[in-house]
């Protein structure tokens, strides 16, 4: 073996997603597999991949039925892709899409695959309901029974209270707090105001609407079930309208509660995909090369007893990733910071500006510095588009790659926080 | 806490009783007292009680784990029993002590004020034990009479009555209040209110359903009516069933006790948690060895308990 095998570029060729829909609306009757298949079909059509054997397809969903144990593979089989295309499922909460895409980029870089499709899907409207643990234990006991008598004896234990179906929890299992409640604590600790959050939310809607109006999403989004644009978007919103809303999270902070339904992402259904490949593969198929997927970093924080905020992992991942690549914020043209909540973006940015945080928590000599707002989420982000958990990574990578296309060497920064104190940051480079 | 003191009388050896029978006896006793209003004794029984325990079964360990959703108890990486499960094993002995005819306070309606535990050595499942319980320190409280029940747990093979005493594996002081009975007189009137409660930053939220008392009862065997039924609770002066104090203790400690033991912790109960409830909870690191816990009602901003774990 040679002492050092040079890695090659992983090229982002393009992306396709379906418009994101507010939960229990337009996509109420679409399953995760329906939406992922549709997003893949759009990608296949756009890049002429019919009959093509792709190296690997990696995607996932955060809220997943057990019957969807092979969601990605089953979706691939529903597309015109070569049925010999392998696929695997990824699950890393809201960072699922980023992890799927990042791991595929690594495979391309190492020469293991020539092409890959990464992404994700989520549905709140078609979320799995499960029976209570008590009822499940009784049914399993009945299932194991060897005689009718034993079975009846087991089933006789069922009580009315066991029958209520259980919706998937949105609370952190180890704290019992919802993500919004966790974020309210972090926002309060960082002194983030209602005003800044509403301004960020408004900018997200304005930027997304502008991008749609300019046709930016024409080759990134394929209509689905009669929807052509993300239906959470409110182009006509205003600070006055946003200012009228009552807080929904952190209500025990009283008059210091700042998080409303508008500066928090709504529950949404949708799917997104990204096509990656080697330069050779892209050239051989006469496909565009929008950007390189340069690097990504996973992070996690100790949030259980509140030592760090639940959604602050990207703050740590960014520091390691930038140090490894010898970069500072000055080197980036665009920043995509996933708007789980407006305050998530603001807390991360405040942390990077804080000398104390960067020294004590990140081990840096100097703060990472501030981010120019004119470079932040310039085509809108999750507050406006919505956030079907696993689909957000695909939306962000495709959007940023397109922004950087035609700007060779210019860099884009990505930050995505996730449940469980997880997070991912990534770097992509225009070409 | 002192090791098994030898100044006490020879312990009275008892068989670990069934809690249900004790509660029945206590209820009858309460009824009798109401009728005859007989004068109570004013001294604590001198003799401790001593019971053998065959060991906490793996099945009980699993039930306890299921209750709090803790990590798997595999007997290898996690084998030291949680302190509260040890308390559960010893609780019937405490109750037996307090149910004796010569115990001066009525068992029914007794309020648990606080608990302090020193967990000296790890205790494993299926490990035979001896449980020694005695009553101490009958004293006045502004709302009645309080008493400490001291429990010490030894392995089955030591002589707990040996001269000089033996270091227990685990020991606790549970303080109870009997409301409205002033056997030790009334304390000097003390109107001093503590500083107003300012809740710390919460780190967790406990959603407790109406069945939280029954769920702990199923694991602990402690079917005290005040915890398991709304009617039972009303009969004992509570608006609805309240969760066991030691449920809060177990939940506050879950996943935080060291495997090699050698730690101590305490919990002080304030407003009872009436079910169903949402309890706001905070675990705050005081220093490298100390975690402070607070549980409170986030709506009424009333404190349910404070606790501390020192490792």
TrEMBL record, chain B:
What Pfam family is a match for this entry?
MaoC_dehydratas
Can you give the residue ranges of the MaoC-like domain? 210-290
Matches recorded under InterPro entries = Fatty_acid_synthase, HotDog_dom_sf, MaoC-like_dom
Superkingdom of the source? Bacteria
Q: Member of which family?
A: Belongs to the enoyl-CoA hydratase/isomerase family.
Name of the protein this chain belongs to? MaoC-like domain-containing protein
